[in-house]
Amino acid sequence: MVRANWQKSQSLSLPPGHMVAATEMMKGPLKPLSILLVTFCAAVFDLPAQTPSSGPPASAAQPAPTSPAIPNVSAEMQQEAARSDVTYLRSYLVYRYDYKQQQRDVTANRFRLRGVYGFGPQKRLGVAVTVPFILQTNSAQTAFGLGDIEPQFGGNLYLSRRFRTGAAVEFTLQTATNSQLGGNTTIIKPAWGFTAVPTDRNELNCVFNYNRSIHVSRGAKIDEFEPDCTINTRRFGATEYVEWDSYYQFAQNQLAQTMQIGFSRTSRREKQCVLSPYVSFPLNQFGRQTQFIVKVGMDISWFSSTEPR
To answer: What is the CA radius of gyration of the chain?
Structure first.
C-alpha cells in the first residue's frame, strides 16, 4: 500500500518547466492565496484508500451496493461551510461572537445575529440581515450598544451539484448608537462569488467584494476591494477550513491581508445545529494596523429542519 501511494505521488509530479512556473506563483503579495490554492489541489487529489473485502466476491450479476454516506457527507460539508458561501441560500439563523484586539489598546466584543431566508425555485434567491451589538473598550472609555445593521439581497446565477455562482449586494446602514461602534458612513457592497465542489469532501469558496461609501457623516471615505477565498475539507467528522481575506485600499494603494483557521461540526444530536470556532491573525503589517492584531470567535448556526439538505 505504501509503495502504491508512493508511485501515485510520483505520477502526479510536475515537469521542471511547470515547477518553475509554480514557484514564481508563490512569490509576491499574493503568496498566501497561492498557498491556499496548492493546499486545495493537494486535498482534491487525496484519493480514498482501498481496503480488502472480508466477504466472498460478489457475482457479476449483482450490482455493487451504493453507500448513502457520500451524499450525506457532501450535504453536511456544504452546511458547515455556509458561513463563507455566498451561493448557499438555505434558510438558517446564526449567532456570531468574536473578540478582537486592535491597535492603540482597543478591544472589541461583538455579538451578531444573522438571519438568511432562501426562496424561489431551487432556493435561487435569498435575503439576509445582520444585527450587531458591540462592547468596545479603549484606554479612555467603554462603549456598548447597537452597531451598524447590514441587510443583503442575492441570488444564484448558475446552480449545479459541483459548481454554483451568484451575486449579492449588501448595505451597511448608520444605525450605531455610539460613534465608536460604527463606521459613520453608509456603504454599498456589491459582490460576486462562486463555489466549486470537485469531490464530496472538498469545497472551494471565493467571494469578490467592492466596498464603497455612498454617504459619510464624518471621517474618511471607504473605497476598497475585498477578495476572500476559503478552502474546506471534511475529515474526522468535521469540516476544517483555511480562509484568506484581504482588503485593497485604493486611497493608500496597500493590501491588508488576514488569515482565519477553524473548523465546523454538525451536532450529532441536533443535525440542524453547527458549531464553528476559529482564530484569525494578520499576515502583514498593514493588516495589523487597519484590521486587528488577533481575533478569536465562535459561530453557532441553526438550519431549518423543513428544507432538504
So the answer is: 22
